[in-house]
Structure formats: C-alpha cells, structure tokens
Amino acid sequence: MSKRIQPTWSPPSSDEKRPKLKLFNSLTRQKEEFVCSRGNCVNWYSCGPTVYDASHMGHARSYISFDILRRVMSSYFGYDILYVMNITDIDDKIIKRARQNYLYEKYVKENRTLNDIIDDATAVVNFYEGVVKQTVDPDKKNTMQKMLDSVASAVKTLKAAVEENNSDKITSSKFEMLKLAKDPISEWLDSKYGSTISDNAIFSKLPRYWENEFHKDMKALNVSPLLNSK
Q1: CA 21/CA 108 separation, integer angstroms
Q2: Cα–Cα distance between 105 and 189 in angstroms, integer?
Q3: Helix (H) or strand (E) segment spanning residue 229
Q4: pLDDT tens per residue across span 167-205
Q5: Which of 226, 205, 213, 203 shows the shortest CA–CA distance to 56?
Q6: Distance, CA of 41 to chain centre
Q7: Domain total of the chain
Q8: Which residues are the signal sequence here (predicted)?
C-alpha cells in the first residue's frame, strides 16, 4: 500500500516578536513554528468527559496536563486563549447507567417482602453468573467474579437471618445485600424492564449531577475555568 500524501502546508505569517513556540504539525509530521492566524488569539478545542460516573485519576492527569500547556501558552508566550471543552451529556453509557440507577432506586423504595427480595436475589445471582461467563476481558471478569461471590455470600447471610427470625440481623443483612448487589441488581432489572423507561427527566438527571461534580473536581485541582460545549 502506498504511503498517503499529505496536502501542502501553508502556514500563516506574522511580524510579531515573541518567544518562538514550536509544535508538532500532524499535517507535515514535523515541528513547525506556531503562528496565530488571527493576531494574538488562539482558539483551542479539547475533548472532555462523558459524565455518567465519578472522575478518576486518569481524568485528573489529562486535564491538569492540558491546563499546564494552556498556562504556558498564555502566561509565557502571551497568547489570548479561548479554551472550549466538550462535555458529552448523552450517549449509550449515560442512557444505560441512568436507566439502571432509576430502576434500582425504585426497587429499593418499593419495600418488597423478604421472600420476594430473597427470590429476586437468587435470580440476580443466577443472571449475573451468565454475565460473568460471557465476559472476555480477564481483569474485568475477575473483578465481576469477586463481586458475584460477595453478593452470593450476602444472600446466604440474609437467608440465615430469616431462618433465625432475628429482626436486627434481617435488617442489617438486607441492607448489606442490597448495597453489595447494586450493580448486579441494576443489570438484572435493566434486562427485564429497561425497554419500558422513556422519561427524558431520568436521562438528564444523571449527567447533570456528574457534570456538576466534575466542575467541583476541576476547581479543587485549580484547573483554569472552562467554556463548555455540548
């Protein structure tokens, strides 16, 4: 296969005297002197998070790295930077997570009988065993198996508390089982009732919450303020 030929690069010109900044040009595949096409203004677009869960250290590293580069360009090289970052607030991951959260919270609030909860928990364990078996990634499969073992153990503890008719143990073991089994229960409920969920408010609640948490994290990390694009 012949090597792709890149189009000709026609760089902007400038007579301004400033420290020279060189960046790798993906068009020419070499370092080029950076020259603004509009005076001193730099428009910078950056991909941002998909807000369906908490930010982690990988996010922190990325946004701090970009912020360092941005500060260097602004404070040392003197450019006026308009920095815009996309935040994805609707996609398949968000839709699925929002749907599962809604179904789980609804299930917990319904105050089902102990027999129903135990029957459901047994069905959840059987369902999740199938999910684990179908998982190919070894690390993910190992994590899911550990979760499954914890849930199965919690179900046994709840059954034992019911047989003892110990109200305190029943309350605590029921709470512990529902907490440990949140992800498997959510997956199970979604497989049964997910297609019935269509309220847009359910799908907007989750990203609004995690977007707000993301901005709190960025402020705590002292990342420069952002302009958001959705």
Answers
A1: 57
A2: 11
A3: strand 227-229
A4: 999 999 999 999 999 999 999 999 999 999 999 999 999
A5: 213
A6: 32
A7: 2
A8: none
Boundaries of domain holding 141? 92-206
Residues 6+ apart with CB under 8 A from 96: 190, 194
In the three-class reduction of DSSP (H, G, I as helix; E, B as strand; rest coil), residue 144 is classed as helix
Closest CA to 99 of 185, 202, 188, 180: 202
Q: Please check the confidence at residue 229 and state whether its pLDDT lies above 60.
A: no
Q: Are both 99 and 197 inside the same structural domain?
A: yes
Contact 186, 101 (CB under 8 A): yes
Cα–Cα nearest to 96, from 225, 193, 224? 193
Residue type, 163: E
Cα gap 175→64, rounded to integer Å: 39
Structure letter (DSSP) for residue 224: P
Q: What is the pTM of this model?
A: 0.75
Residue 10: inside a domain = no
Residue 97 shares a structural domain with residue 200: yes
